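Friendly challenge for the regulars: who can give me the structure tokens for this chain first? No prize, just bragging rights.
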Amino acid sequence: MKKTLFYAASVAFIAFGMTACGGSTEETAAADTAVTYQLDAAATTLKWKGNYADDSHSHNGTVKVSEGSVTYKGDAFESGSFKVDMKTVESELTPETGSDKLIGHLSTPDFFNIAQFPNVEVKVNSISDKEIDATLVIAGKEVPAKMPVTIKKSDKELTAKGKFTIDFSSLDVNGFKPNPEMEKEKPNQYVKPGVEFELNLVLKAEAAKE
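First reply, four minutes later:
Bragging rights claimed.
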């Protein structure tokens, strides 16, 4: 009788120890499950503002994020990418006050060469709760971008909100540099390469996949 009781107690102790040390099967599976958050384009907004070098004036507007997703494995970021549709650039101006002229100028090779490169490809390198580190491919060139944002993630939704500046100096285009022909009459009549942005990014979780 004593041997039977001792054996039963030993089995129960071992089972309890395995559960306590290893965690539940459900918890382990959850940590290994990849969840992809897909862009909610209708709820996402991206605002921009460009300032002239002499601070005499600026222009602002919006552009649409058309595609994108971010994948997590448990709480660890795995991968992410987005597309920004440059054909959707809009400004605060109206046709009467020069919107067509402004957008036309931004579309040329002096800036973003939109006819040849209609999308900006965004590769997400890492995400923390305070920053998105990404590489932008604009007009065939890579531009590094660190975006301080507030990240909120649940099992159903991921959001990123914040204001930041991206330096486009590495594009080496005329629109972001002094124009020698104009410098004598109108000095500093070019756009600062540091363009300001305000992002409200919304993504929805897909069904969990192994």
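Confidence is low (pLDDT under 50) at residues 8-20. Helices lie at 2-22, 25-32, 99-107. Your move, everyone else.
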